[in-house]
Design goal:
22 helices; single chain; mainly alpha; two-stranded antiparallel sheet
């Protein structure tokens, strides 16, 4: 790595007072984190790039968070808030990742923070010996040797203390970012549109702080001129709204369905669909459906990228359409199936998941039965899945999605199921 700049900006005051060697990340003691944070403040772009990659690799390793993660958060917040430092929007993106992991797992509904906190407390209260006894009984109940070996592997891999430590580290990182919200709120009015976008994106994941952040976001809606920043603020407002604020919030967001910028219309529809999924009946109308249907197809080549769902508006639209299934079941499924037919590779994963949920409900490993027993929309979806290219079917992730609904894999088996010829 390039030599690290050792100058300490004000944002990193107190950095050396932390006993980083006593904290851990993915690769052991976290004593390299201070140097990486300093490098992230460097005027040298290559230093910053390398430091960012290293931080994503150690305090956010493949989505995991560690004891050192929460300790790094206050410095990243101060860096994001310091207009004298470069790449502040990058710090905000990293903060969101440290708080929640990969956002696809939280969409389209948003963070269920009460359930998350309850899950951690439930594990904390468990007796490790009782859990081991449950695993032993589960192994004994295996139907055959293959199933028994799989269950034994799962049992032997489980370590209660490590599991609890990992859960506590994730929630600790989340709460560390939440503690910085007062410093992030002013960034909604920053002179840099990328910073405004990043700040709105971070705030999306903290419903417990909606009383502070939602009014600020709504004030920004009529002032924001950057399409991506405005779209991000709209989606965030939808994620923070609940059935208490929902009807008034839906009225506030609805005018943006007729905005000139497509990304703004998409964001308004996405926000309203989420409010509808939270029980706000007035939020979901045919124009919301129509906008999401149009966005569930092939995205335009120059479409602006919002930070949600890694910029994949088609995948996010497909997920949002599952929230409209009660009111528009056939229209939603047809739209997502059309979108799936135009995907390939990893881009197909969220779309296939949404389509299968719309067609068959929750995952059902026992399978939907004979192909001839399916409805025509269901048969059309399964044909599309079987017809996707080999680049899509080479991914184990895709096999897992298809198998979750009990459909045959690999591709040749599914093609045989629907009556398509071998290739």
């Amino acid at each position: 790595m390039t030599e690290i700049n050792t100058a300490v900006p004000a944002a990193l005051s107190g950095l050396d007072a932390v006993d980083w060697s006593a904290l851990t990340h993915a690769y052991g003691p976290a004593d390299d984190v201070p140097g990486l944070l300093r490098a992230l403040c460097s005027p040298d772009e290559e230093q910053r790039h390398q430091a960012l990659g290293a931080l994503y690799g150690n305090i956010f390793h493949q989505g995991s968070r560690y004891p050192a993660t929460a300790a790094a958060v206050p410095f990243l917040i101060r860096m994001a808030a310091d207009p004298a430092l470069p790449d502040r929007a990058v710090c905000l993106q990293l903060l969101a990742a440290l708080a929640i992991g990969y956002d696809e797992a939280q969409l389209p509904g948003g963070i269920a923070i009460a359930e998350w906190r309850a899950a951690v407390e439930e594990v904390r209260a468990q007796d490790p010996e009782a859990i081991r006894a449950e695993y032993d009984a589960w192994v004994e109940a295996a139907g055959d040797d293959r199933e028994r070996r799989m269950r034994e592997f799962r049992r032997d891999m489980y370590d209660h203390d490590q599991h609890l430590e990992a859960m506590a580290a994730e929630l600790g990182a989340y709460d560390a970012v939440r503690a910085g919200i007062p410093a992030l709120l002013p960034l909604l009015g920053d002179t840099d549109a990328a910073v405004r976008t990043g700040a709105a994106y971070v705030l999306a994941w903290f419903p417990e702080a909606a009383g502070e952040s939602l009014p600020r976001l709504l004030t920004r809606l009529d002032e924001e001129r950057d399409p991506v920043a405005l779209a991000t603020a709209l989606v965030t407002a939808g994620l923070l709204g609940d059935d208490g604020s929902g009807p008034e919030l839906a009225l506030r967001l609805r005018p943006f369905l007729t905005a000139g910028e497509p990304v703004v219309r998409w964001a308004a529809a996405t926000a309203l669909a989420r409010l509808g999924g939270k029980g706000v009946e007035a939020a979901v109308t045919a124009d919301v459906l129509a906008e999401l249907v149009s966005c569930a197809g092939e995205p335009g080549p120059d479409e602006p990228r919002v930070p949600f769902h890694e910029g994949d508006t088609r995948g996010y639209s497909a997920a949002s359409l599952t929230l409209l299934a009660d009111r528009y079941p056939r229209e939603a499924l047809d739209a997502v199936t059309d979108g799936l037919a135009a995907t390939t590779g990893p881009a197909s994963f969220p779309v296939a998941t949404a389509a299968l949920r719309l067609a068959f409900g929750d995952p059902r490993p026992d399978g939907p039965g004979a192909f001839t027993d399916l409805t025509e929309p269901q048969r059309r979806l399964v044909r599309v899945l079987a017809g996707l290219d080999k680049d899509t079917w080479r991914w184990a992730n895709f096999w897992d999605i298809v198998r979750s609904w009990g459909l045959p894999t690999p591709r040749d088996a599914l093609r045989a199921y629907v009556g398509l010829p071998e290739e």
